[in-house]
Amino acid sequence: MKILVINSGSSSLKYQLIDMDNESVLCKGLCERIGLVGSSVTHKAHGKEWKVQNTMPTHAEAFSKMLDLMTTGDGAVLQNKADIGAIGHRVVHGGEKFAASVIINDEVIKTIEELSPLAPLHNPPQVQGIRSAQKVFGMDVPQVAVFDTAFHQTMDPKAYIFAIPYEFYESHSIRRYGFHGTSHRYVAQRAAEFLGRDFNDFKVVTCHLGNGASMAAVLNGKSIDTTMGLTPLGGLMMGTRSGDLDPSVATYLADITGEYGANMSKLLNTKSGFLGVSGISSDNRDIEAAAAEGNERAQLVHDMYSYQIKKYIGAYAAAMNGLDCVVFTGGIGENSPSTRSDACQGMEFFGIEIDETLNLKRGEEVDFSTPDAKVRTLVIPTDEELMIARDTLELV
Ligand code: ADP
């Protein structure tokens, strides 16, 4: 069966068509600037790439153009849309309602919409993506929602309740949810396979380090804790996000700057993290380049980041009463030897010892621990699309 995987943003639509007979990617692409001037689609198939300017007032036109590129011209990979057996959608917030992927029906769409206050930037465009797909592909093609939060629904209340008046959990569902669940699940499972271990008897810390970043403690196949919280702002510092703070930093900052509510949220979400501390860039490549040239604040960003990762590895090893494996993934996790190396320094005492030569490998699955290290340290490139396609196949 051929499965279309969709990741719909407010002005973008990422797609990937996967042939599940051999899990190969037939084509992928990105529609950008939907609803804005200068919208375009980049389509990749048969080892080539096409960029087409196309007016796309809404996601529905983006779906039509994508389908057009998949079925006609040099980038075609299908005879017609009937060749697509099912569609899998990434949905960011499933709240407490979804602990696993589900077949989409009216009730599911309504619930995703109701959860929008918890992910105002993500859930509404994802519902738009689902509705547009229904319009373009018809109601006969089954669609599945795969939630970023679902994998972490196995957390215990002691890990997800915040120490604020309990009534806010009851009335407004304020708690830790965690995100990047599809990626954490994929790399944790893959790490067990890679090491020939039983996933249900395996203690792994997964580090998804991209522009957004989170870590998870995965014990015997289940997420028992994760760094992000109510929203993807918590936990590790990130490209532009602060990560965890003493909560009074936000209230004190508000008093100093006069920025409250949405403006304070903007400061913490878009002006903080790597960008805020370095004053240079949110991009780790820029940070590493500046640090190599002696920029002290860029070096500070690198040191803070690696230190935070290391602290969570320690915390999660304690939470799991041991550690078999640490997995690095995401743009930084897969490509930055210095972040991996510094995050793993000084932990020989509990079995982490890395081989700096193996650690230089990029973009491929690798075990970069020393042969005798008790804890295996791995790079596993993430593949959220494949995970979404697998869940979709299983459900349909
Ligand atoms: P997103 O969360 O947007 O999917 P990615 O997973 O693509 O982000 O990660 C982007 C981050 O990965 C950026 O900070 C980028 O600088 C970093 N990165 C990508 N390639 C390298 C590299 N070769 N060396 C260091 N950092 C890298």
The main β sheet shows up as: 8 strands, mixed
**Which cofactor or ligand species appear?**
adenosine-5'-diphosphate
CA(first)-CA(last) distance: 10 Å
Percent of residues in helices comes to 25-40%
Give the rounded overall mean pLDDT: 96
Give the overall silhouette.
globular
Structural class: alpha/beta
N to C succession of SSEs: EEEEEHEEHHEHHHEEEHHHHHEHHEEH
Strand order of the largest sheet: 5-4-3-2-1-6-8-7
Strand content: 15-25%
Helix tally?
Answer: 14
Unreliable spans: none
Radius of gyration equals: 21 Å
Number of strands: 14
Written overview of the protein:
The protein has 396 residues and is α/β, with parallel strands linked by helices. Helices cover 37% and strands 20% of the residues. It contains 14 helices and 14 strands. It has helices at 59-71, 106-114, 123-137, 157-160, 167-172, 181-195, 247-257, 261-270, 273-278, 284-292, 296-320, 330-335, 337-343, 384-395, and strands at 2-8, 13-19, 24-32, 40-45, 48-53, 84-91, 102-103, 143-147, 203-209, 213-219, 222-226, 325-329, 366-367, 376-379. Strand 10 and strand 11 form a beta hairpin. The site of adenosine-5'-diphosphate has 13 residues, from helix 10 and helix 12.
